Amino acid sequence: MAFSLAILFDMQYMSYSLTERIAMNATVSARIPVELRDTVYASLGESGLTPTQLIQNAFAYYARNRTLPLEEEPVLPGKRTLSQDRLGSLAQSIRETTLAVDPAFFQGKSDDELLEEALREAYASLA
Length: 127
What we know:
By secondary structure, the chain is α+β, with helices and mostly antiparallel strands. The protein contains four helices and four strands; from the N terminus they run ββββαααα.
């Protein structure tokens, strides 16, 4: 048995951020199994969220990513192997974004020492 979900946003405006206001007058309707609705409503209630927030976030996610979350491959723990295409693309990206630096540039200093020196110079310039 399916359940018709109709959500009416009867508020004229709802603030998403301090600087942006979005008109909230759209209606969304969907048919979902009753069991799914009940499970989700119970879980949302425990989390302090509303069905409206869930749907707004789902729409925002899809607008940003043009994909559903379940279409993404899950990241599983453990060792991963990359395809030859992926390895090649990573190697190319590293070549394009890495610059060769003359070892004399570091003057025998560690990364921590170089960072500390740079931070001291930055702080001194503020004085």
